Amino acid sequence: MSTQPRTTERNEPNPVDVTYDLDATSTRDVRHGVREVLGRYRGLTVDDAVLVTDELVSNAHRHGDTPRACRLGITHQGRYLRIEVDDASPRQPRRRTPDGSGGRGLMLIDRLSSAWGVQNYADHKTVWVELALNREGSSGHAPHLATARDWHCED
To answer: The whole model's pTM is what?
Structure first.
C-alpha cells in the first residue's frame, strides 16, 4: 500500500489517496483500508463502500489480468469516495442476469454508487465508482436498495 497526495479533476489536493497493489495485498487489507479512509463515517456509508470495493477487487481478480491495482480517495471537497480498480484485461465489465453463479455485482454497484464507469487505456482499464458520503435520511435498513432502476442485462 502507498499513500500519496494526488489532485482531483478540479486540481484540488486529495486529503487521502491510498494505492494498493492487488497482486500483493489481500482483499481483507483493502477492505480495512476503506474503513480507515472513511474513519469519521459510520453505518451504511462505510458498509456500502466496503461492499462496492470488495466487488470491484473480486472482479479484478476473477476476470482481470495482472497487474492489478486499487486506489481510494476522497474527492469533490470531501463529498465522495472514489474507488478505482485497474487491471490489464481488455474485457469490459458487463451486466448479466443474476443466477446461482453470480451476476449481482454490477447491479449492486449501480444501486449503491452515485456514478460509475470504465476508462480504457492502451495497456489497461480502470473501473471507477463514486459513492456519496453525505447521504441523508438513512434509516439503517438500506433504503437506497428499496427500488430498482431500469435494468437491462446481457444473457
So the answer is: 0.77
Residue 24: φ, ψ to 5°: -125, 0
The per-residue pLDDT for range 80-137, each reduced to its tens digit, is 999 999 999 999 998 888 777 777 888 889 999 999 999 999 999 999 999 999 765 4
The DSSP code sequence of the chain is -EE---B-TTSPBPS-EEEEETTTS-HHHHHHHHHHHTTT--THHHHHHHHHHHHHHHHHHHH--SS-EEEEEEETTTTEEEEEEEES--PPP--B--BTTB--HHHHHHHH-SEEEEEE-SS-EEEEEEEES------SS-GGGSSPPP---B-
Q: At what angle do helices 105-112 and 44-63 cross, to 10 degrees?
A: 140
Does domain 2-137 correspond to CATH entry 3.90.230.10? no
